[in-house]
Amino acid sequence: MLLVVVIGGALGGDSSNSGGHKHHGKAAHRTAPKRSKVPATYTVESGDTLISISGEFGVPVARIVELNPEVDPQILIAGEELKLR
Hints:
Elements: E1 41-43, H1 50-57, H2 61-67, E2 81-83
Antiparallel strand pairs: 1-2
């Protein structure tokens, strides 16, 4: 059995470059998750997961599951409508 543990810069680590952070490409700037207004429903798109939907709208995965007991959380179907509040 092989176990690999990676501890990154979030714990301090090496700060030898100018700000202690390295930025690469377009994903370098961070934006806060959209939390201003949570829509009543969300239509699932291809590639969506409960975690990605949760992160986008700031609704906990457990709450999405609770509001949508008829939905299989392991298999989201594009076009399926989920209640978010």
